[in-house]
Amino acid sequence: MSYKRVIRFIVFIALCVQAKQMVAQNANTRPNIIYIMSDDHAYQAISAYGYGLNHTPNIDKLAEQGVLFNRAFVTNSICGPSRAVMLTGKHSHVNGFKDNHSTFDGSQQTVAKLLHNNGYTTAVIGKWHLISDPQGFDYWNVVPGQGEYYNPDFIENGVKKRVPGYITNITTDFAINWLDSRDKSKPFFLMYQQKAPHRNWMPEEKYYHLFDSTQFPVPANYFDDYQTRTKAAHEQAMEVARDMHDAYDLKLAFDLPKDQQKGLAGNWQGIYNRLTPEEKKKWEAAYGPSIEAFKKANLSGKELAIWKYQRYMRDYLRCVQSVDDNVGRLMEYLKANGLDKNTIIIYTSDQGFYLGEHGWFDKRFMYEESFRTPLIVKWPGVTNKKIASNSMVQNLDFAETILDMAGLPIPADMQGKSFVPVLKGKKKGDVHEALYYHFYENQEHKVAKHIGVRTDRYKLIYFYENNEWEMYDLKKDKSEMKNVYNDPSYSKVKSMMQKKLMELKKQYNDPVPVVTPQI
Ligand code: SGN
Ligand code: CA
Q: Could you tell which of 92, 198, 354 is best to mutate to test the pocket of ligand 1, judged by most ligand atoms within 8 Å of the CB?
């Protein structure tokens, strides 16, 4: 080798070493980010929020060293749309995914792609629900559609296979495996997304008897008659007492006769068939006695409605318990591998959920229980003690906040706002002074399409298919039982809120089809 070539070779090696050191340094200084999103996890079912229904010690531990948001909301309370908003930082009408029947245009800009293109190694594991294949991830292992609780299918980087076990545990196994085998020279971004506690709430074997003897307090408005509310609240199909299916939701049957296997009964048989004969035996031993007791009691009217509520709550909260256990497992892994000090944890859900309030299960409406979502952010070195924040934030802000945490520039076309200043304790007030909402999917559960605006104190909802309005004074009426839209003493508030709604609609450029002459 000539002298010059030797020098060139030495310089090349020195540059390589330097580059490697820089990458390693980056991996050490730029935070890792784990975005934990459970499906349909109501804030009422996280003990840190103080509702007293259950105990979630591992999620609560995040809140002990982080910021617990009391006023985090979504823009469109349903699964796929919420996920698309989170990924893009754009409202549904901009990212194109308006309802669960849409297909995500994966070619567009997402927070995952931006992190990936700027030195992060990225993965998404668990529920995805955006139809098209994930893009912007070094590794993906997601369930098709909603996923199944027992022995679910997973699609790993495009290859589908059935995986034995319980979905909440499997999702964590995959997350830990990826963390173990990831490219350790880079910081990581992991989207760890549980299917639980989504319908039809099938618990893990070890929790079959949890809450067996617990009587949950029935919400004060469980027997809501929707007086003062518009047609939309009356016409929904999401009442625990009326719309839950005996086999599928309430687990009042095992194998069904062939001629009954239609609709939700068919769904039940399909998922029940995923259990092995051994698993079916254990399921039947656990649920059999309560089915017998139920038949014997021969309940009707209010008693039957309350029995259904208790049945729903027990299974829902049992599923939550496995979610909490698995958050604990993941945190233990981080600690054991020295990752806990430089990993930000975000815990949230794709929306809120009704646990019997207004008599309902499911979500969709802009009323608080489904519009709001749990949100806890733990950022080691930044959020060191428990802080409860009342600042109004929205899932529209997640993408920008994550980029901000990673020290990356925020694209001008994103529509949210970073709430890093709240996490750093530099901002106490609202990130948004008013929040915009738009729900599109008037199909299953029959919730009319609507837009709306929420401020600190008031909420205005416009069901534009019905041309009907509702307005709530949240200070006086936390449960949204009294529609004050036509109350003359609120006429000024009404004009102020309608003005805000139109301003936000314009700001976000939402072409809502109908606007009445009233505005
Ligand atoms: C399924 C459920 C609905 C639920 C939607 C949306 N029905 O269709 O009860 O509202 O998902 O949920 S089921 O018979 O299939 O269980 S979401 O979380 O995906 O938006
Ligand atoms: Ca959901």
A: 198
